[in-house]
Amino acid sequence: MAGQDIPQEYLDGYAHILAAASSTGRRLTRDELASRRVLGERAADAGLGLRALVGAHLAATRAHWPAERALCVDSALAAAEQAMDAFAEGYERAQRLAVRQEEAARREFIDDLLYGRSDLGLLAERAERFGLRLSYEHAVAVAEGPNGYEEGHAVPREVERALIGRFGDRSILLTTKDGRLVCIAPGDQGEVLAFFAKRAHAATDGGRVAIGRPQPGPGGVVQSYEEALNALDLAERLELDDPVLHAADLLVYPVLTRDRQAMADLVLNTLGPLERARGGAQPLIDTLAAYFDSGCVAAEAARRLALSVRALTYRLERIHKLTGANPSDPVHRYTLQTAVIGARLLDWPSKRF
């Protein structure tokens, strides 16, 4: 603040430096410059405002202006300029160090929070410093785009400005992790994560966003974060087109893969015969996926695959002949669709098992 009282200790030696330099016309010595930088660092550490400090130096300059003004004005001004420049340099250096230390502490906290590798009680105490109360429910949204993003990148800054402008201080933490944007918000404020998803999707040039379920307690953040990551992984494996995914809507997939061996057996027993087809199993699996994703409407599935309806119908008949399961039969359809989902999740037939 401009009216802030500045203790004289931060002006220690300034009057002597000004008098000595202005009377001889010399520049400040290395030690004199160093002393100004040290005082600047101390002033920054004490939380004093730079504007008030500059004002105090100007006031001291007027108070100790040399008597022989006509002869010494240039030397006095040069000395004052050098002294204040060195003081400001030290002040700014201390501020940069403080910022780096704060960033390091924040990054360490975020790593511990998202990996769940710290004592939960201590983690909850540290969280209050960053505006989170971990005793409440929290949900996590994760956005990924074509590029990786780090703290300070233009994309997270843009999204953060939009969040703050819309919601102000609502115990929201926006950060980056492994090149993705991460937003942590109270579990009862779904509108915050919905807005984050919208802005992150736009800022990342059409990137995908996944939102974990609200989870309680200090360990709830890491649970919701992992759910969001798993949703992104599922979306890639299943080639889902939705720009925003909710982990709550995808719970069936972890259930399907909980018994990996059973799913592998279903895939091999149901779809294994397709490997005898010319071109292998993959084109026919893609045909089934498009057919099911289009609601079993042949014309729409053909359009998605850039095929004629006649060619699509031929492929479906070929699948029926090889597997013994008819894709248009409701009884067979469930088995085939579950097997196709399993093949996507297990990356079969690219990976053998």
Automatic annotation (TrEMBL):
Q: Which Pfam families match?
A: GGDEF_2, HTH_30
- In this chain the PucR C-terminal helix-turn-helix domain maps to 284-340
Chain ranges of the CdaR GGDEF-like domain = 116-234
Entry similarity comment = Belongs to the CdaR family.
Write down what this protein is called: PucR family transcriptional regulator
Q: Which organism is it from?
A: Streptomyces alboniger
